[in-house]
Amino acid sequence: MVNRKELNPEGSPRAAYGAHLRRMREGRGWSQEDLAGHTEYSSQHISAVETSRKPPTLRFSRQVDRAFGLASAGESFEGEWREIRQGSLLEGFPEMLVYEARAAEIRLYEVGVIPGLLQTPAYASALAEGAVKRGAITADQARERIQSVQERQASLSRTFSPLIIVVLDESCLLRPVGEAAVMDEQFRHLIGFAELPNTVLQVAPFTMGARRPFDLPITVLTLSDRSLMSYAESAQRGHLDRESTSVLPTLMAYHQLQAEALSQAASVAMIEQLRRGTP
Fold it and tell me: Residue 101 burial by CB count (10 A; 0-12/13-18/19+): exposed, middle or buried?
């Protein structure tokens, strides 16, 4: 075969996925064009996934599973895709995203960085690139993180948009991420977010001191049946609590946080002042 690229399944999870795809395809005696005929993807796209030039997606994985008859098999491509995703995300986070996409109300508190739901593509990329440089994640995991941010934001663009309440610790605004233009764009995005009819944006200033009820990021979700769940994470771990009774104290603490935080008008004024100070 002309220009056949040798694959290294040990190179990365995405490389292993691509090698698995080629192995299954060739095991059927199919060309890339043959597999394309069983899916909605082009042979060029299939080639790019096999050689790790493009990341697999959930939709792609499900179509390939149908083509190979692997939908309920232990070695399904959807299962492998989920393992790739979970390898770059904290425990509990992938499951939280499923509920977040269906939630009627979303309450976020973040420390240190702008939360994913509000990140611009440039800001998300700068964070991921920084993590790669520190050796905290691989380049493949960085791409997965950026893709997760995009998919997470897109999942909330639905007919009945949820109420989204966000409280940012002041540190989120004062920590520079990327070039000055990245922060300027991010500040503009936050101001635009606050203007939406289904959002509330507040800043918890440093002057709150000990009155701040949370020291770590927290998410509280209210589902359409009014059940509650919360997600909290540290640098290395995430925990999803699906028991409404145990989440109630967290929700009460969140209300206390909102009461002590700056109003939305004052918060937007702070962000605008910081934006004007951006070179």
Answer: middle
Show the tokens assigned to 181: 């233009």
Tokens of 48: 């790019």
Interatomic CA distance for residues 52 and 47, integer angstroms: 9
Condensed to tens digits (0 to 9), the pLDDT of residues 52-64 reads 888 888 888 889 9
- The total number of structural domains that make up the chain: 2
Altogether, the residues listed in the chain come to a count of 279
Amino acid identity of residue 250, one-letter, is: T
Contacts of 164 (CB under 8 A, 6+ apart): 105, 106, 108, 117, 156, 198, 199, 200
What angle do helix axes 180-194 and 121-134 make, rounded to 10 degrees? 130
- Answer for the pair 172, 117: CB distance below 8 angstroms, yes or no: no
Report the alpha-carbon distance of residue 134 to residue 111 in Å, rounded: 20
pLDDT at position 235 is: 58
Among the candidates 64, 87, 110, a domain finishes at: 87
Rounded to whole angstroms, how far apart are CA atoms 231 and 154? 20
Write out the E strands in 13-162. Answer: 105-110
Query: pTM above the 0.85 mark?
Result: no
Same domain, residue pair 100 and 25:
no
Summarised one tens digit per residue, pLDDT across range 231-249 is: 987 656 678 888 888 899 9
